[in-house]
């Protein structure tokens, strides 16, 4: 398998992971639940900062 094909599939896998995490976080928030930390990290969102949203 050429390097270009490997790179394409690696990029595609990353896209699928990020899109899946975005959907999981969105569904959790809409359902009034806390999203899993692994999904937040996949999106580059600080877990502690996200958890503190809305708290004063």
- Estimated helix fraction: 55-70%
Largest sheet: none
Structural class: mainly alpha
Secondary-structure element series: HHH
What's the tally of helices?
3
Which stretches are poorly predicted, pLDDT < 50 over at least 5 residues?
none
Oligomer: single chain
State the end-to-end distance: 54 Å
What is the average per-residue confidence, as pLDDT, rounded to a whole number? 90
Task: Describe the fold and architecture.
This protein is mainly alpha-helical. It has 3 helices and no strands. The protein has helices at residues 3-30, 37-42, 47-51. The longest helix is centred in the N-terminal third of the chain and has 28 residues, at 3-30. The radius of gyration is 15 Å and the shape is elongated. 7% of the residues are buried.
Spell out the key features of this protein.
single chain; 56 residues; mainly alpha; 3 helices; elongated
Short structural description:
With 56 residues, this protein is mostly helical. Helices cover 70% and strands 0% of the residues.
Topology:
Elements: H1 3-30, H2 37-42, H3 47-51
């Amino acid at each position: 398998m050429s390097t270009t094909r490997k790179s394409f599939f690696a990029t595609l896998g990353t896209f699928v992971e990020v899109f899946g995490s975005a959907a999981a976080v969105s569904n959790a928030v809409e359902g009034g639940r806390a999203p899993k930390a692994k999904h937040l990290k996949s999106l580059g969102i600080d877990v502690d900062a996200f958890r503190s949203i809305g708290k004063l």
